[in-house]
Amino acid sequence: MKITKNAETVLKQRYLKKDENGNPVETVDGMFRRVASAIAEADRIHDRDADIRKTEDTFYNMMSELEFLPNSPTLMNAGRELGQLSACFVLPVEDSMDSIFEAIKQAALIHKSGGGTGFSFSRIRQEGSTVNSTGGVASGPISFMKVFNMATEAIKQGGSRRGANMGILRIDHPDILAFIDCKADNNVINNFNISVGLTEKFMEAVERGENYDLVDPHTKKAVKKLSARMVFNKIVDAAWRNGEPGIVFLDRLNRDNIVPGQGEIEATNPCGEQPLLPHESCNLGSVNLTRMVKVQDGKAVFDWDKLEKTVKNAVHFLDNVIEVNKYPLKEIEKTTKQTRKIGLGVMGWADALLMMKIPYNTDEAVELGERVMSFITEKGREASRELAETRGAFPLFKESTLPQDKPQRNGTITTIAPTGTLSIIGGCSSGVEPVFAYVFIRNIMDGTELFEVNPVLREELEKRGLYSEALMRRIAEEGAVSHIKELPEDIRRVFVSTHDISPEYHVRMQAAFQRATDNAVSKTVNFSNDATREDVAEVYTLAFSLGCKGVTIYRDGSRDEQVLNIGKVNRGEETPEQPRIVPRPRPDVVTGVTEKVKIGCGNLYITVNYDEKGICEIFTNTGKAGGCPSQSEATARLASVALRSGMDVKTIVDQLRGIRCPSTIRQQGMKCTSCPDAIARVIEQEYEKQVALGNWLPMPYEIKPTPEIKDKEGGAFCPDCGGSLEHESGCVICRNCGYSKCG
């Protein structure tokens, strides 16, 4: 098998079956066989005499050869008890408490099963409007987004993936200005990617410098006018600041809505590439284009015959997924099977270009991209029509906008997904993105270093006798090949990375694939840190003019999860210094109080000392009945050090409050649940007393979560393995271990 060591690690951590102790109980080969067998079984539904073994072998071969891979839930869950195989869902959110909390419940079930959810909050009435049923006022869509966010935080998808959401608000919603800024703080609503739903009418108003109407979603009446250009500039400013929000062009999503009689498309999946109707789901898969290249007359070219065969087998596979999928809700199963949408895309595009010695940022690459995707869509439709001959067209075909003389089994065929962890498994570049970094350095537990080198670059350098560890280290440190002038000019010209490519070519490549894709394209337009707001505005305007369905941008260094071009490893003297916080010395004179608190095993005496700068010291002492003196003393000492280091009081209180001790909760009438809980209560009580006296400022209303540890250049490490993080379509992905998080 062609699995790399890195891919094997990711599969063991996140995909393979495990026993109760978390140890893998299947091999990588066994996983592919499990998936192939489960998906092939769908053939029996349509043909009792179907050669299931032959179909299974076909599916197994194209997965094990890394020619095609389905979305992560299919790899994880096919042939297992959970059996939920789709990645993308959209749920409706109407303007009622019942609908809102039903959507939260449904989202929880989807996240638990391994899927991601998209929502439009555009139907929720604006903040401050009257609620007739209660006589109160509405809290608005953003407040409910925070509730959705908290629910997502509580669930880790299928034990392997973290919950992800897309939140969309129409540009004409009265709360649009607040929505644009609702993620100005990167730690707020951090389980959501957000996008503003733009209309053609709005973009025309921007172009003409006109005002446009904000419309009350409840009454459907205009309530206010805003300058379209002002709002557009505000979106640009927010995206320049930290990449949020993205934009989607709603009219274009609905232009390609194949069953408009079933409703309006208002939302997409978390990365924006899959527009769906309410309660609709879609399963995705990707062809690895590096496996579709052959050498002919001494030159690397696409093997169009192999690509056609792979595409047709992949369409067969994805249609079968719809049949054997165990949907999280009956309503989703019904809606999905009405249109039978699939989303076949690609990965390894940038690596395929490298193999053919075509620079990503050229007209030749853009034109080839459109040609490749047109071919995939055309052959995919042929395969879907062939399936329709034996299995029937999708149930809503006759009311669809598709040509009625060519029945299709599937309402849509193609989608370009980001393929974060799938591309790690496939050993190739992600989606249609350029290569982010050609060399990573991994630190192995025994202290040795392992260079993760782009396979196409390694082969080229070895062929020319240029490969060396010293050169790999330099590429890792400089973050690009094109900067190393000692390398031949043709290598520097071809092996371009993300930041060598102008934003214009990012958009042009996205538009080329979009023109040939049924659904949408997930792609990030990367900017250097010194890019201006005007640069962002130009990209949005270009994306609109070239026919894109949405845009996500990221300006380097604009978020906490700053991408690292990792050139240093965590070993000895080469480890980047982390910022160190030194506690201020204990004052010579302090003021304090001691309070007796009843706990489960007796009395706890808590002393809180402070000076003019705030609380600086906590002491505890237990009564004669005993208790846990060492643990309470340790808690008090750590709280003291944290307070003298400048940590916010509420952060400490929030961490200690509610910790439960069995000896306390067994007794009735206890005000405290444990020694730490008692310490927190006394700290909070004394702090609030000093605030009331006007001596100290109030606690902040909202405490930010602790961010990932950053190096001195502002980068962030993966919280699972310490590797570097890359930005992809509003998400971060670690190519070392497969960790990913959206929002």
From TrEMBL:
Every Ribonucleotide reductase large subunit N-terminal domain range = 2-83
> Where's the TSCPD domain?
584-687
The reaction(s) catalysed by this protein are:
a 2'-deoxyribonucleoside 5'-diphosphate + [thioredoxin]-disulfide + H2O = a ribonucleoside 5'-diphosphate + [thioredoxin]-dithiol
Q: Which InterPro entries match?
A: RdRp_reductase_class-2, RNR_lg_C, RNR_lsu_N, RNR_NrdJ/NrdZ, RNR_R1-su_N, TSCPD_dom
Which prosthetic group or cofactor does it need? adenosylcob(III)alamin
Q: Which residues form a coiled coil?
A: none
Q: What is its EC number?
A: 1.17.4.1
An example Gene Ontology biological process: deoxyribonucleotide biosynthetic process
Q: Which UniProt keywords apply?
A: ATP-binding, Cobalamin, Cobalt, Deoxyribonucleotide synthesis, Disulfide bond, DNA synthesis, Nucleotide-binding, Oxidoreductase
A single MF term (Gene Ontology): cobalamin binding
Enzyme kind, highest EC tier: oxidoreductase
Boundaries of every Ribonucleotide reductase large subunit C-terminal domain copy: 86-403, 408-554
Q: What family is reported?
A: Belongs to the ribonucleoside diphosphate reductase class-2 family.
Summarizing the function annotation, the protein's role is: Catalyzes the reduction of ribonucleotides to deoxyribonucleotides. May function to provide a pool of deoxyribonucleotide precursors for DNA repair during oxygen limitation and/or for immediate growth after restoration of oxygen. Provides the precursors necessary for DNA synthesis. Catalyzes the biosynthesis of deoxyribonucleotides from the corresponding ribonucleotides.
Classification via PANTHER family: RIBONUCLEOSIDE-DIPHOSPHATE REDUCTASE, VITAMIN B12-DEPENDENT RIBONUCLEOTIDE REDUCTASE
What's the name of the protein? Vitamin B12-dependent ribonucleotide reductase
- What organism does this protein naturally occur in? Candidatus Allocopromorpha excrementigallinarum
